[in-house]
Amino acid sequence: MSLSPDRAMPSLQLPLPNVVVISGSSSGFGLLCTQKLVASGTKVIGTDLDRGHGSVASSGLYTHVQGDVADEALWTTVARELSSADGSLGLLTCAAILSVGSVVDLDLAEWRRVFSANVDGTLLAYRYLVPEIVMRGGGPIVSVASVDALHAEQQLVSYCASKAAVYQLARTTALDFGRQGVRVNVLSPGPMRVGLFNRHLETVNDPTLLATREARQPNGRILDPGEVAEAALFLLSGGSSGMSGSELLVDGGLTAGYEFRPAH
């Protein structure tokens, strides 16, 4: 039995915070989440080293704060912007960088650069936003980690270690501030065709890498970033009100088993 063309599909609407602060809002996954939130009517304060993306920069719902997420000055500016933004508040930390190398050949300065962006940037976002969320009666925090937080990947030692640190930053903060209404959850994507994954493909000189990674996926494909963004919005929404200190794994089944699918 098929639905008639004029019959609307059932849908579910979930409440979102009035205001969401997003780190890494100008490109990749952070930009996609920013676009979806603005389209939903949510006011977004975005942070990034780059300028605000043209697709949202002109929106009256978007405010951009340019700077380094590991610099406290950026977060003091975000806090000032929040003083004129009323209503419930959420935080989504997406800003991250990736470097290729093992413990033997990765330069120490590069290791520190990755941890500065991925870990220090998340820590400072929490430090400045958690008190504001508490003051507004509680709200959601979502930190983007990775399947690499718990499942190691060759030549990505700094990225894997930094995402593991983000994972535990989120879970510990969920325990510390749960009774004050702060919900903190981790979103752990698998490979998706955006941002860091695309840069990894470009960095590694292996023309078979994409096909190999696709063959590993139980669903036979690399995730569309829009699928993962929907999961991020769910964690920000009231639909996840019973979740805190949890990990939402969105990897197309990649980590469901211990064997990768053969490449065929």
Describe the structure.
This protein is α/β, with parallel strands linked by helices and 264 residues long. It has one domain (19-189, 227-251): NAD(P)-binding Rossmann-like Domain (Rossmann fold), CATH 3.40.50. Helices cover 40% and strands 15% of the residues. It is built from eight helices and seven strands. It has a seven-stranded parallel sheet with strand order 3-2-1-4-5-6-7, with helices on both faces. Helix 3 packs parallel to helix 4 (108-135) and helix 4 packs parallel to helix 5 (157-177).
CATH class: Alpha Beta
Assign a percent range to the helix content.
40-55%
Q: What is the fold named in CATH at topology level?
A: Rossmann fold
**What structural class do you assign from the helix and strand content?**
alpha/beta
Global mean pLDDT: 91
Distance between the termini: 35 Å
Q: CATH superfamily, please?
A: NAD(P)-binding Rossmann-like Domain
Strand residue percentage: 5-15%
Provide the succession of SSEs: EHEHEHEHEHEHHHE
Number-wise, the strands total 7
- What is the approximate shape? globular
Low-confidence stretches: none
